[in-house]
């Protein structure tokens, strides 16, 4: 009887963990179903411009910033992501890229965490 009870408890735990796991997969965050770290990889063309305010911003960088910047909260999450930090970007410089790309509908005066 004790073995059967353990089996039922274990089975219940597995079902619960599976349900929680499925909800996390379908949940939408700042960047929809994609993680900020995955979106940060798309900004690879911006690496130099995100480290040096005087560096030219490439057209491919601006294109990616336009796409991700449709959601300002996603763009902030990307700039503050672990991937962005590991790549050595400077958030206080990265936040200037939308302006340097002459993106008209950029969030003016938008803050990302403590950076502005």
TrEMBL record:
Q: Does the keyword Transmembrane apply?
A: no
Q: Which residues form the signal peptide?
A: 1-27
One Gene Ontology term of the molecular function aspect = fatty acid binding
Q: Which residues form the Bifunctional inhibitor/plant lipid transfer protein/seed storage helical domain?
A: 27-108
Annotated Gene3D superfamilies? Plant lipid-transfer and hydrophobic proteins
- Give the SUPFAM superfamilies listed for this entry: Bifunctional inhibitor/lipid-transfer protein/seed storage 2S albumin (SSF47699)
Q: Which GO terms are recorded in the biological process aspect for this UniProt protein?
A: systemic acquired resistance
Q: Keyword Signal on this protein?
A: yes
InterPro entries recorded: Bifun_inhib/LTP/seed_sf, Bifunc_inhib/LTP/seed_store, DIR1-like
Q: What keyword terms does UniProt attach to this protein?
A: Signal
The protein in question is named: Bifunctional inhibitor/lipid-transfer protein/seed storage 2S albumin superfamily protein isoform 2
Q: Which organism is it from?
A: Theobroma cacao
Top-down, what is the taxonomic lineage of the species of origin?
Eukaryota, Viridiplantae, Streptophyta, Embryophyta, Tracheophyta
């Amino acid at each position: 009887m004790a073995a059967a009870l353990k089996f039922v408890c274990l089975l219940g735990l597995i079902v619960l963990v599976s349900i929680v796991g499925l909800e996390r997969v379908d949940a939408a965050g700042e960047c929809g179903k994609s993680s900020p770290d995955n979106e940060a990889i798309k900004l690879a063309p911006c690496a130099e411009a995100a480290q040096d305010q005087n560096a030219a911003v490439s057209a491919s960088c601006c294109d990616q910033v336009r796409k991700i910047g449709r959601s300002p909260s996603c763009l902030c999450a990307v700039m503050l992501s672990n991937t962005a930090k590991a790549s050595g970007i400077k958030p206080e410089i990265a936040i200037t890229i939308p302006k340097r790309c002459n993106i008209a509908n950029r969030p003016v005066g938008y803050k990302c965490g403590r950076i502005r």
